Each structure stands twice: as structure tokens, then as C-alpha cells.
Amino acid sequence: MGQLDQGKTRRMKRIFQQDNRTIIVPMDHGVTVGPIQGITNMQQTIDQLVKGGVDAVLVHKGIVKTVDTINTGLIVMLSGISNLNSNMNNKVQVCSVKEATRIGADAVAVHINVGAQNEDKMLANLGKVAEKCDSFGLPLLAMMYPRGPKITNEHATEVVAHAARIGAELGADIIKTNYTGAIESFKQVTESCPVPVLVAGGPKCKSTKELLQTTSDALKAGAAGLSMGRNVFQSDNQALIVKALSSIVHRGASIEQAQKILGEPN
After folding, report:
1. What is the pLDDT along the chain (266 residues), one digit of tens a residue?
2. Among this protein's residues, is 179 annotated catalytic?
3. In the annotation, is 28 catalytic?
């Protein structure tokens, strides 16, 4: 193993536990939608997530300078655009790999909307970022979402598998993408992607049971874990929801056992 590979391996271990699974809570929403509920006080939220046993948090560079992420993994978001923009699917790079490394990142993340109007520019940038990450020994998480005029269903197996595969093809070490809604269909995504696949949380689930069910099913389909934002940081008890999710992801708990942690009836 080369020296740079060792750097990536060491940093991956700060994000993934020994079971090669992880729970990441992304909180980059402040750029996209503003200071919504759950991320108005970032330190308070991070304290709760760490208390619950989160494996890594994902934030923008400016937030890194204002919070203590304690001993949890730190992923710095390189992409951004606000929903005030008329072309909000066009994510642009707002932080360099070098700057993310300098401020202590264990990994960096890029967001690509596959099928969007500016997909060409986003993919070109993904390729360049992957090269930079290799030179710095920094893992790259690619958030690969099928979104665009030709895509009628963002959770369809074919487009999700295609988006995930593009991320791996262009050099990402970890992929985050939409859950397809069923174990069998999501297996097609994980089995055709040569790097670990994480399930995105998407819009806030109607119930915690739905969230736990999605988590359990995704793992059965071969997912390496979760990258969930609003479903976690907008929870009434952020620490407990992380603890419940962690029991499924890292200890193989049943949905009923996870519900007990939350103090909910089955």
C-alpha cells in the first residue's frame, strides 16, 4: 500500500467503524435553504449527535471554524447553491480540497445532480476533485442524485443505479444516493457500484418507524450505512434517534428493539 493510500485508509477509519458501516449526519442545509429548525445552533446539535454516537458530521467550511466536532469524523462539503437561485440544481464548488484538508477534514463531499442542465460542468468538477483527493490522501463522498428534465422518478432503480455508478466511475470513494424503496431494487444499486453506498434521508419521514424500516431494509440490500440530515437533526431528541439508528446499523438490532430505545410502542 502506498503512502497516499494509507492516508485515505486512516481517514476512512475515522468515518467507518470496524464493521465498515457508518452513520453520517449532513448539516450543509444552511447554504441551500437557510438556518432551518435543528441547525440554528450548530454546536448544540453536534453535541447531541455525538452524545448519540454519530460516526461523522458533514458541514460547510465556515461552520467548521465555529464549532467543536469533538471526536467525531468531519466531512467538509465542497458544493453549494441556494434555493433562491433559478437554477438551483447547478451545484458549484465553494471550497477547495486543500482548504478542507487544512481545516482538519477527514473527507470531503461533492453534490452532483445527474441529468440536470449543468451536469457536464458538475461531472468535470467531480473528476478534478477526485484527482485532488487522491493527491491529498483524502476520501471523497459523492452525493449522486438523479434530478433533471428527463427524470420522472428520482427513486427509479435504473436512474439511481446509473447515478451511483457515475460517481464510482469518476473516482469517488463513497456514494450517497436515493433509496429505491425496496430491498430487491436497491440491491441492484449496491451490487453494481464498486464502492460503499450510503442511503440519503431525503424529505422528513412521516414517522420514526418509517425511518427505522428504511434503514433496516437498505442495510439488507447492501448499503454501508446512512447519510441523513433532517430526519435526524429535526428530531425532538437528536441523541436518541442517532442511538436508535446506530443500534440497527452497527449492532443489527430489530426495528422493535430500536423503537424501545426511543421509548415508542411497537
Report:
1. 344 489 999 999 999 999 999 999 999 999 999 999 999 999 999 999 999 999 999 999 999 999 999 999 999 999 999 999 999 999 999 999 999 999 999 999 999 999 999 999 999 999 999 999 999 999 999 999 999 999 999 999 999 999 999 999 999 999 999 999 999 999 999 999 999 999 998 777 888 999 999 999 999 999 999 999 999 999 999 999 999 999 999 999 999 999 999 998 76
2. no
3. yes
Cell 456514494 sits on residue: 175
With cell 467525531, the residue in question is 72
Q: Is 220 in the active site?
A: no
Task: Name the catalytic one among 61, 106, 176, 179.
Answer: 176
Question: Strand 56-59 to strand 92-93: parallel, antiparallel, or no bridges (unpaired)?
Answer: unpaired
* Crossing angle for the helix pair 238-251 and 208-220, to the nearest 10 degrees: 20
- For the chain, which domains are there? 3-196 (3.20.20.70)
The residue from 61, 132, 145, 179 that is catalytic is 145
